[in-house]
Amino acid sequence: MSLPNKDGLIGKESNLSDSSAFVQRSAPEVEDKADASLTSVALLELLQSPACLLNGAGSVTYLNAAWRERAGLIEAGEGHLSLAHLIHPEDRYAVLFQFRSAITTGDRIDFECRLQSARGAARWCLLSLQPLNKGMEGGCDDWLCAGTDIHKLKSREIDLERLASIQTNMLDISVDCIKLISLDGTLMHMNKAGCHALGVPEDSPFGMPWLPLLPDDVREAGEQALTSARTGVFARFPGRSVLPGRKAQFWDNMLTPVMGPGGQPTAVMCVSREVTAEQEALELLRESEERLAIAARVGGLGIWDYHIQRDELHCDESWYRIMGRDPNFPIRSIAEFRPFIHPDDVDRATEVKQNVAELIAAKRDYAITFRIIRPNGDVRWVRSAACLVQDISGTAIRAIGFVVDITDAWRGELALRDANRALEKEKTSLARQSLEDPLTGIANRRYLDSELARICIHASETGEAICVGMIDVDHFKAYNDRYGHMEGDAALRQIASALQSVAWQSDFVARYGGEEFAFVLTGMSEPVPILERFAAVVEKLAIVHEGSPTGYLTISCGCVVFHSCANLSPILLLKASDETLYEAKTAGRNCHIIRVAST
C-alpha cells in the first residue's frame, strides 16, 4: 500500500478504494463519495494523533502515519487488519462492544482504551467514532476513528484511584471507627469498623446524616462536638452504640476539623476508639468503691492508703473521726501520724520497712492492735489491718487497709476477764502459776510442752510448716557473778518481754529454764526475719555486760524448720532445736543457726 500522492490520490494498491471500483462507478453519487473518501484520507495524514477509516465490518480501510508509526506498520491499510488488532488485548472486547453500539445507533461515540504500541507499553487514548456518510435511515458504511492521547491524564487517574484504594484499605484495617463528615453533617466516608459499629452496610454510598445514627442519649453531645469542629476547634465526647442482638459498645469520639488551603474547615474527621473494656472496668471499680464505702460506714472502719516509697498517707473522713482529728488538717506522712499514737506503741505501729520485710517473707497481711491518744487525752484501742500491693518485681509499693476502734470491746473483754478472775481467783492463780513463768510472766516449760503438742497435731493435719527454736543468753552466768542475781533477774525479764513483743499472735515464746527461751513459729518456713528481729530487740535493750566480748548482753539462737510433723513429738522437736542451739554457741555465740529437718 502506498501513501497519497501530491494531489491527494491513493496508489493503485490502496485498500481504501479499489481502482477498478472507482472506474465502474459513473453515477455522480459514487464520484462524490470517492471524493469525500480521498479528502478524508488527506486530512488524516495531516493529523499528528492516531486516526483511521473503518468500514461497517470494523476493518481498517486506511491508517494514518501517526497510528502506523505507533503500531509499527508500514502500509496504510491491510485487508486483514481490523480495529481490534490496533487495541490492547485487555480492552478489545469493550472497544468492539462500543463499535457495535455505534453501528446500531449510527451516532458518534467516545470511549477510552489503550492502543497497541511497537515502542513499549500501550498508551491510553480517547477514541472518537463518527459516521462519514450517514444515510437517511441511520445506516453508515464508513467511519472515522480519531484518537487523542490521554495517557498522562489516565495514569494520574489510575494512580489516584490506587492511592484512594490504599488509603481505604488502611482505614479498613484500623479497629477504630473512622468517619469523614461533611460540614452539613452527612457522612462522606466510613471505614469497615465504623460501618460495623453503626450497622451501616459496607457498600453503602453514604450521604446519610451522621447524628441520627447515634443513640438518643449521646446525640446532643455529638451535635455540640460537631458544631465546635465546624468552627475549626478540636472536640471530643463519649459515645455509645447499641445494635439489636449485640452488647452495647462505648466509644471515645475525637472530632478533628479538616482544614482547606484557605485555613477554613472543609470537613470533619471523626475517630472513635472503643473503650468498652475501660468503661466496664470503671463501672466495676465504682461499684466496688460504693460497696467498700457502705461497708466502712456500717462497720465503723476508717480507710487508709499509704504509698511506701513516697511516704504519702491518705485517709478518709471515718479515719479522722476515729482518731478524733479534723479532716481539714490532713495527715500526709508517717511522721505526722506518730504523735497520734501512744508512746508505748508508736515504734511497733510505725516501723514500716521492717514490718514490710517480715510480711513479704512470711507472706502475711498486716494486722496490729495499738493505742491512740485523742486531742482531749482520751486513750482508745484500735485495730489496723492491711494488705501489701507489690510491683512485678515483688517490691512493696503501697499498703491499703482500715482501722477500727475496738476500745469498747477491749474494755468489755477486760471487764469480763476481771470478773472471771474475781470469781475464780484461786483457780486462776493456780492456772497462772502452772502455765506462766513467775519471773518473766511469759509461758513456762509446762505450758510450752502442752502448747507444742497441740501445734504438732494441728501441723500434721494441715501439712503446714513450723519452726521450733531455742535461745540462750550469752555469758549469762558471768553476768550474774558480776552484777548479782537481782540484776540477772531484771535482765531476764527485759529480754523475755522483748522476745514476746516480736512474736505474732500465732507465734509462741516461753521460758525454757534458766537463761534459755524456746519459741514456735507456725505456718512459716523462712524464719530469718524473725530471728534477726529477736537479736535486734535484745541488742536495743543495751544491757551492759563488761564480761561479754560485745560489752552488752547478746543471744544465740538455734532453729529447726519442720515441713512435716508426722511421727514427731514435742520432745524430739525441742531436742533437735537444742542441738542446733549448741552449734550456734560453738560457732562463737551472738548468732543464729537454722537447720531444715529431713522428712
Question: Short description, anyone?
Answer:
With 599 residues, the protein is α+β, with helices and mostly antiparallel strands.
- Which whole number gives the mean pLDDT? 83
Query: What would the CATH topology of the largest domain be?
Result: Alpha-Beta Plaits
Separation of the first and last Cα atoms:
112 Å
What class do helices, strands and sheet pairing give? alpha+beta
- The total count of strands amounts to 20
Second-tier CATH architecture of the largest domain: 2-Layer Sandwich
What is the name of the CATH class of the largest domain? Alpha Beta
CATH superfamily of the largest domain: Reverse transcriptase/Diguanylate cyclase domain
- Estimated helix fraction: 40-55%
